[in-house]
């Protein structure tokens, strides 16, 4: 659990990087605006987490999943974000799966080399 309220805020550098990606060329963001966005984003994350936790409790589970976040987004009337988030979650799962497969393949290659030398 966070020791101080400030510990719950997203890092300003991360927020700044995200904001810069969507701002038109030639437009900058002040430190005050970046701080405000970081606090607003942190509050939103806590709000979605709370709603997702309610979903977990309703289903009598202990682990919060990506699907719980999607359900929470719909519950708090952010339905228009559910499909893009679902797509991002699927892309993430594919990337993790591919990374695991690549690691497994490397392990298999290492085992084959050892077996061939023996």
From TrEMBL:
It is found in: Nucleus. CDD domains: HFD_POLE3_DPB4 (cd22928). Residues 99-118 are annotated as: Disordered. Residues 9-73 form the Transcription factor CBF/NF-Y/archaeal histone domain. SUPFAM superfamilies: Histone-fold. One of its GO terms (molecular function) is chromatin DNA binding. GO terms for biological process: DNA damage response; heterochromatin formation; leading strand elongation. Keywords: Nucleus. InterPro entries: CBFA_NFYB_domain, DNA_Pol-Epsilon_Subunit, Histone-fold. Gene3D superfamilies: Histone, subunit A. The keyword Nucleus applies. GO terms for cellular component: CHRAC; epsilon DNA polymerase complex. It comes from the Eukaryota. Residues 109-118 have a biased composition (Acidic residues). This is DNA polymerase epsilon subunit 3. It comes from Pieris macdunnoughi.
């Amino acid at each position: 659990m966070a020791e101080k309220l400030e510990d719950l805020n997203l890092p300003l550098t991360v927020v700044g990087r995200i904001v810069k990606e969507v701002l038109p060329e030639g437009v900058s963001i002040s430190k005050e605006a970046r701080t405000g966005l970081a606090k607003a984003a942190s509050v939103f994350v806590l709000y979605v987490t709370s709603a997702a936790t309610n979903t977990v409790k309703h289903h009598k589970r202990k682990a919060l999943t990506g699907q719980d976040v999607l359900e929470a987004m719909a519950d708090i009337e952010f339905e228009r974000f559910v499909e893009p988030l679902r797509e991002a979650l699927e892309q993430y799962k594919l990337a993790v799966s591919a990374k695991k497969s690549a690691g497994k393949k490397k392990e298999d290659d290492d085992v084959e080399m050892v077996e061939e030398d023996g």
